[in-house]
Amino acid sequence: MIRNVMVRVPEEVGQRVKKLWIARVDFSQSKEGSYEFGIFYPDSFVNSNEGILSIDAEEGDIIAIRAPVGQAFYQIVGENLVPLEDKEHAYEVWREQHGLPAPRKIENAYTILLCYPDYINDGGSKTYLAHVSATSVVSAQILGQRAAQGDCEQIVDDSNDFCVLAVFEGHLENVRED
Questions:
Q1: pLDDT tens per residue, the chain (178 residues)?
Q2: CB 45 within 8 Å of CB 73
Q3: How far apart are the C-alpha atoms of 40 and 98, rounded to whole Å?
Q4: Which terminus of the chain is more exposed, N or C, with fewer CB under 10 A?
Q5: What range does the domain containing 73 cover?
Q6: Do 58 and 129 sit in the same domain of this protein?
């Protein structure tokens, strides 16, 4: 059942956000989503920073609102707007609601350059090069640190002791001739 969703925008938020908007997000065509925009009703023409955002939506719809920093995503559950973490979370919730399988995470190849911990690194120039496959740069860094810890001949209590110097896309190889 379609109903009108209204969100009150206090003046302090309206002053920080120049273009206020509300939209219903449909992820059926792409992960980026298509936006069907609602309306902003200012309280007065004198003070257009305060007012009401309005859009027609149904139970379970994903709603995006222009927030002071980026966008905020919500799902309509009963009479409430339930906050979602981010656009990625909104996409996952939408897919689950429509009975679609979770998207397959694509792993990319990374080369991680790490420096050994000071307590086992004479002079500070000993490095480790790791090749990993991961779904994100952060995951790649963690996998690289764990690989370095596992290959280390000396005991290293915490893989975070290996300092990440650089992360490169792809599996890079040294082709220098001696």
A1: 677 888 876 655 545 556 778 999 999 988 899 999 999 888 766 556 677 889 999 999 999 988 655 688 999 998 888 999 888 889 989 998 888 876 667 789 999 999 999 888 877 789 999 999 988 888 899 999 989 988 888 888 788 889 999 999 999 988 888 7
A2: no
A3: 29
A4: C
A5: 3-97
A6: no
